[in-house]
Amino acid sequence: MSDSVNTAKRARKAGIASFIGTTIEWYDFYIYGTASALVFGHVFFPDTLPAGVGTLLSFVTLWAGFLARPLGGIIFGHFGDKYGRKKTLVVTLVLMGAASFLVGLLPGYATIGIAAPIILTCLRILQGIAVGGEWGGSVLIASENAPKGKGVLYSAFAQQGSPAGNLISSGMFFLLALLPTPQFLLYGWRIAFLASIFLIVIGLVIRLKLEEPENMKVVKKKDAVAKVPAFEAIRKHWVLILLGAGALPLIQVTYLKTTFATAWATDTSHSWAYSSSTFLAVVTLALVVQFIVQPFGAIILDRVKDMRKAIFWIILPEFALMPLMFFAIELGHPGIALAAMAAATVPHSLFYAGIGGIIARAFPTRVRYTGISLAYQLCSMTVGGGTAAAAQWMYTSSGSIVPVAILSAGYALVSLVCTLILLNKTGWTASENSKAEAADEAEFAAALAAEKAERDADSKGAPGATGSVSAAAGSTPAAGSAPAAGSAPAAGSADAVGTSDSVSAADATGADSEPAPARAPVTP
């Protein structure tokens, strides 16, 4: 079997495994958001609180998980950059599943009093730590195993797990909400959390069969692993981390259209209020739309010559569609609400498909897990976690949905500006190399050349083997040296892109007679 076939097979396997794993993790994370809107205010807080306060407090516990996500990004980014992507993703999956399962077993306020919301918050923090390390690793396991120049496209496998997990969680609660309200509040909602244990087992079986990306193997073999990835990422790449975080608020509007909108639209104080089952059906069908259209975002970004123009036209409609969605929901008609929510879902779904790969390609391999995780989780902590609570406060304070609609448009504006700046720094097309990718390519080529020279010397039994290795290794510019960073062709040129291809996969295996097609890329 040729190396190109092996590369394609490995890429598909990594992509599918990434999708399934993130689907399970996001299912666990999203069921908490839905439960906080429908259940937790009644179960884990006193029923003597004023109307809406219990729901607001449950949203605060939801935010606790987001506040913990940067910590998870640092912890698991550290282990992912030092010891590998695969092992780290196994741990995040187990931690998330255990926390979700325990939420399903937790007694309510009526049984254990104030301990109930305290324990609930602690379990939510564990969920946040787990998902803080999940997203970056899943994007990398898919994009780093991808064929050359296809990192942005293959990163969409991991991104697809988010709408899939959200869809399953909403569908699960839609079915459970069909129970009579007393039964639903007593035990029905717990089924969604307890069921996660079975999904975790499936995810573990799949993740344990994953292969570590080739570029990570090279970094570990050359002992080029960062001693403290978080320190190096923050010291050398803090601008990229902030730009990455600034590019992501648009994807947090998911919590406006699901978590906040569910609580707001089912509030019986409204004359137009929806039943829980009806509005959950609206949300679920809108998520079906997201699941269908989202992959096209990665396909578009993979094929266009200038991703900046594509990003601009993808985001632009959201400035109108998201605010209009809230006004349509207020009409109280499920069909109109569904049409508006489905339309508003399209722009940020297309954007979400490719943004993971765009951010990942900005960082070098040795700190990539940490860098991408910090960028994503900083946004989640400051924007995502507070979105539902902020929207609830805005609506409660003003009595109008207009401030919430303006907030959604603001998210789109920040994402648009930061993404365009980030693309200017990392490369305009999916196929061209960023500076980080060019350095990684040179380092990979040097490693393969040195390894081949060493094997050739050993096989011939030459007395000057050591000198040959030194000469071979020294003849290839190291990452960051003057030839790689200065005199080499600019990132994105044919010569720069071809750097890795000049050292064939046949060289890596010691077969001199048959050159192999391009290897999997060092970076997406």
Automatic annotation (TrEMBL):
Annotated segments matching region Disordered: 455-524
User: Residue ranges of the Major facilitator superfamily (MFS) profile domain?
Assistant: 14-427
Primary location group: membrane
- GO cellular component annotations, sorted alphabetically? plasma membrane
GO molecular function terms noted in the UniProt entry: transmembrane transporter activity
- Output the InterPro entries linked to this UniProt entry: MFS_dom, MFS_sugar_transport-like, MFS_trans_sf
Compartments reported by the entry: Cell membrane
Pfam families assigned: Sugar_tr
Q: CDD domains recorded for this chain? A: MFS_ShiA_like
Under which name does UniProt file this protein?
MHS family MFS transporter
